[in-house]
Amino acid sequence: MTLPSSTMATPATAGSRAEAHPASRETSAVLPSFRCIYDDYFDFVWTSARRLGVPIDAVDDVVQEIFVVVNARMSTVEQPASLRSWIYGVVRRTVSTYHRARRVRGASESRDPFEDGASPLQPSPLDLTVLSDEIRLLWRLLGELGPLKREVFVLAELEEMTMPEIAEAIGVPLNTAYSRLRVAREEFNEALARYEAAQKERR
Q1: Residue 146 and residue 161: Cα distance in Å, rounded?
Q2: Which of 6, 17, 24, 107 has its Cα between 20 and 30 A from that of 36?
Q3: Which long-range contacts (CB under 8 A, 24 or more apart) does 20-29 make?
Q4: Using CA of residue 83, residue 84, residue 85, residue 88, what is the dihedral sign?
Q5: Domain extents in the chain
Q6: 10-113 has CATH 3.40.1190.20 classification
Q7: DSSP string, 90-155
Q8: Per-residue pLDDT reduced to its tens digit, 50-84
Q9: Among the CATH numbers 1.20.1070.10, 3.90.79.10, 1.10.10.10, 3.30.1300.10, which is that of 121-203?
């Protein structure tokens, strides 16, 4: 199964943003302007927030909050080459804060996506209208991974982040990130094999 580059529809306005991969601007030792960061990373931030469980009716507000934090803390970025992992760290913390706030307000369906037993975000009706059969299958297989392994798998296989980037973004030792990815790949392939076997039995 060839993994698609995106598992979710992004806002229509996002399609007109910069086509270059966000990492292309990280090769410079100079931090890009906030305008460039916003244009280059909007899709990445939006899809990351959705994958981490932010519902469609709240994602725009959460994304706006993420970029407010990014703008306010840009001066703390020590390594422009690690900008993407730094931004994902902001996404991760902001989304966790969002889920905690919803639980305090009594929204029991909101669960921190990094807790054991947390389920991956299910596609909204809008998402389902644009998802191919392959991506629907990907949703199903990702649902069989634990949240921490799923996170590393998505960042490595879908976002194509390097393992050093991932380790920095989620705040774990490099060996831990590699271990999670190895187990996640094994479990993903096992889930895919079970699915293919079940499909053959139905034929």
Answers
A1: 19
A2: 6
A3: 22/83, 22/84, 23/84, 25/83, 26/80, 26/81, 26/82, 26/83, 26/84, 27/81, 28/80, 29/80, 29/81
A4: positive
A5: 10-113, 121-203
A6: no
A7: HHHHHHHHHHHHHHHTT-TT---TTSTTPPPPPPPHHHHHH--HHHHHHHHHHTTS-HHHHHHHII
A8: 888 888 889 999 999 999 999 999 999 988 889 99
A9: 1.10.10.10
Please count the residues of the chain.
203
The pair of structure tokens assigned to 193 is 């094999």
Its pTM stands at 0.73
Task: State pLDDT tens for residues 117-175.
Answer: 444 455 555 555 556 777 778 888 888 899 999 999 999 998 899 999 999 999 999 99
